[in-house]
Fold Nitroreductase.
Amino acid sequence: MDIYDVIKQRRSIRKYKADMVPRELVLKVLAAANWAPSGMNEQSWEFLVVGGSKLDELRDVCREVINLRLPPEAERTEQQKAFAHWYSTLGGAPLAVVQCCPRESDPARRKMVLESMAAAFQNLLLAATAEGLGTCWMTGPLAKQDKLHAILDIPESKEIVAVTPLGYPAETPAPVPRKDPELKEKVRFIGL
Ligand SMILES: Cc1cc2nc3c(=O)[nH]c(=O)nc-3n(C[C@H](O)[C@H](O)[C@H](O)COP(=O)(O)O)c2cc1C
């Protein structure tokens, strides 16, 4: 698939088939993430591929996060109920990928490292799309990062950056409209 098609076809997928993703395919997608550029070529991303009972624990943490954010269950709108279901199940995906990096105390270094993480995570998402897999970049679960550290046995020296379910999509969401698609406000050519 042409790179521009992959970029446009990537969607945040919030419903998945239960089918397991072969390990070789997971590694192929993560190898694409590993080809991302990184500040000072540090390549300091790490990926935890989470399944089985650990994924159940991860879903439980996500359920806690969404219950903190939404009104009590009895007062939820249909849309809020659907969003709570997505968070509590991670859409039924068979796997989740958790990205970590070294914890940086210096703000400039942390910015550089987090930008490198984002480059790698986007590579992961695009490679997954090209392979017919679904993803959804999530930072919401980090609201309970202490619990994530505990259940995934991540040391304090590492920062959890992002989470995505990984699996075969069971929905084809419509593209989310882009703001200023003609780039009249977002782009300025200077000196040209
Ligand atoms: C940094 C970042 C954090 C996000 N966190 C969440 C999240 O916690 N939960 C969620 O459902 N979607 C999350 N998203 C997905 C966005 O909601 C989604 O990308 C946006 O609505 C556009 O939809 P699209 O990805 O299908 O183009 C996140 C996306 C990014 C880039």
In short: The longest strand covers residues 158-167.
